[in-house]
Each structure stands twice: as structure tokens, then as C-alpha cells.
Model the fold of this input.
Amino acid sequence: MPKSTLKGIKGWLLFYVIFLSFRLIVIISILLIYQKVYPIILIEAVFVVLALLSIFIKYYPKQVNIIYLLLSIITTIIVNANGIRSDVIEDRAGSVGAIMGATVVSVIFILYWIKSKRINNTFTS
Done:
């Protein structure tokens, strides 16, 4: 493909932006439903906003988004720590599944941010 067609917020990058937007909606919903501010969820909300802003204002988008993706693995582990230690097999399985899912998605997107031609063409001056 010509270099000019692999530029802009299209393709998988658009999917990633939609994914982040959906994640932000979920976090806001959790905060509104439970009406309690959990520090780890608040930290993730801040990083989701920073990740989205970094894409649109083109300010260190690779670094910010890779940090966010690593943080999402850590927050998933922290949130699901009690489930892993649970004696109930369903709780343990659900927590391990959530951690594995977050890890797989994050690793895929980290590799995308590192290796994608669209990312390199969109976010270079």
C-alpha cells in the first residue's frame, strides 16, 4: 500500500479509539452506579482520557498508549485479586479469565502501537 493511504485515524487505529471511548463510558458508568470513587478505577479513567487526548493532539501517543495498556493489565490484576484467592471455583475462573483477556488485548495493541505502519505515518511530523 502507498504510504499516504496508511495515515490518519482509520482501520485498527479507529477501532482502538472506539475501544478506548467504550472503556471510558464503562468506567464512568461504574462510578455513577456504585456512587463510590475507587482509586484504581479513577486512575484508569485518567489514563484513558490521557490516551485519547494524546491520539487527537498527537502528543507522545505511542508512549502514553503503551503505558495505558500496561496499566490496564495491572489494574485488572488488582481488581480481580480477591477473585483469584477465592475458594469458589467460578469466581477464580472468572478472575483468571478477565486477567488473561486484558493481557491478550493489551499485548496485541502494544505490538500494534510498536509495529504499525499507520501509527508511524500518522504520528510522525
